[in-house]
Design a protein that fits this description.
With 80 residues, the chain is mostly beta strands. It has one domain (22-79). It has strands at 35-41, 44-47, 52-54, 59-61, 73-79. The strands form 2 sheets. A 3-stranded antiparallel beta sheet has the order 2-1-5, with no helix packed on it. Strands 3-4 form a two-stranded antiparallel ribbon.
Amino acid sequence: MNFVIPDDKLPLFPRPLPDTKIFERENDPPLGPRVFVIARDKWGEYRIPFPIYFTDQNVFNAQMRVPLADDVSIVAWRLS
């Protein structure tokens, strides 16, 4: 018997969470420098596999320079 999980139920970046001790959870990340983050959305928490940076208005993929999806919230970060 084959089971198919619909595409809309799969996380975009299914990665195991890294050692969260090295990620900052208490303070906001700095504006400008590239950081790695743990994000949360409707599928759960996961590490985004590319560096991002924060501006006053948004959070951007540092490689492609596009904003992250609106439903993604950042729960932890560390400098890249």
